[in-house]
Amino acid sequence: MTLSVTQAVLDGAKLVDLSTSSVRELNAALHALAPDSNETFWKVAHPNGRHAIAAGLDADIDIEIDGPVGYYCAGMNKRGRVVINGNAGVGVGENMMSGFIHVKGDASQSAGATAHGGLLVIDGNASARCGISMKGIDIVVKGSVGHLSAFMGQAGSLVVLGDAGEALGDSLYEARLFVRGTVAGLGADCIEKEMRDEHKALLAEKLKAAGILGEVDIGEFRRYGSARTLYHFHVDNVSSY
Amino acid sequence: MCGIVGLFIKDPKLEPQLGALLAEMLDIMCDRGPDSAGFAVYGSGKDGTVKLTLRGPAGTDFAAIGTALGHEVTPRDTHAVLTVPAAAEADVRAALKSRFPAIDVISTGARMELYKEIGLPADVAKRFKLETMSGTHAIGHTRMATESAVTTDGAHPFSTGSDQCLVHNGSLSNHAGLRRRLEREGLTLTTENDSEVAAAYLTYRMREGDTLGEALEHSLGDLDGFYTFVVGTESGFGVLRDPIACKPAVMAETDQYVAFGSEYRALAGLPGIENARVFEPEPAKVYFWDRAA
């Protein structure tokens, strides 16, 4: 495959303009980076909501995307640090393994879905199903999240500075949920839990990672987790599944 | 999967560009629905007249039909707009039925014109010269069929009332029962399509006195399934998503317009989009813009 990405160097960064290059060309170039590559800072111009930008990264690099992105931006990310100067479409950071994604606008549905690791920070709101089936990712949303967030969340943490929609943490396993605002409703088997010192310390660690430790009062958050009654099928619970 | 686009102009200076902007939006949504496409445009109207959008087989001589009936006709490919005095509408429909049985009347309204065909949406828009149309608001759809066959009749928008149209992304599960109920109420449905039932439901509610906003509110209780709807009336433009909101939607609002797209990509070419308020319409919440009468 040719790697004929139109590239220029700007502020020491490789610049890829998606009005002249395809997403496929961009992603192929990113996937082809050698482990010792000096091309560790990339800028992407004119994303215009295109899908799958910077998906499948496996490199210790920084990418700054200047504008709104479409579906699955930085999906499957491993080690990359991706900043999106705009809104993100469905499934930003979907199945992320490690690294960092920062959405400076709002995120659409299923942000951080099924992700195993890394940190996803969303400055605005995230809509429905944020962190659905999360498996170890840390998600910090500075605004609010929509319905069914952290649905079947298995591990990791979801920190919401605003409000949460209906059915938060439905069928939750061991993901840890912290919400500062109101919760419209808890899903099946999700309950409020005591906020002990160890949980405050954990929350502080996540806020620090997101760069906002000290900007919000940890005492204002409430913790939600699994009641662990639906782990194994029991006929008495049949109406809860 | 289907694609929806909609544009409601607030600034009259943008009205001449309505068709061109919608054509670009529709083009980008080809990926979401390559089977067929359609659009409704709310353009100019003359007091006391109604516009009937006719559809005929390829090669139909619409000019001859206009001459035979004695009314002004504007052909566009397989469709044509016949402008008739409002009082004469019933007679014209009867005359069309008896003298030109191959012709279907697919919409009626003081201002709305409706076009739809099978084919790649970008090609459909070109066939009808969408880019040349002007108006206050317009709604378009690119279809990937799930619930009924790929036919021109199954393409969106659906119009079941004067100046009313609906486009739908999703599928309804209680459309058969609801269709029977609406037919008992005297509504005429012409296809087996689930989306036409939603259109007819809104027509029914508005006939019973609802505003478009109220009709949409009622549909939350009466329609079962998943849906993102965009609907148009002579003066209004509404959006509704089901409570689960599986189907995507993004909107942008500026001083000049309100725009709807299934994906942000569809909105990326609009003027001033970089400074627009871009938001995702919330589930089960009625959004409605109305032009002051």
Automatic annotation (TrEMBL), chain A:
This is Protein glxC.
Automatic annotation (TrEMBL), chain B:
InterPro entries: GATase_2_dom (IPR017932), Ntn_hydrolases_N (IPR029055). Gene3D superfamilies: Glutamine Phosphoribosylpyrophosphate, subunit 1, domain 1. This is Glutamine amidotransferase family protein. Pfam families: GATase_6 (PF13522). Residues 2-292 form the Glutamine amidotransferase type-2 domain. Keywords: Glutamine amidotransferase, Transferase. The keyword Transferase applies.
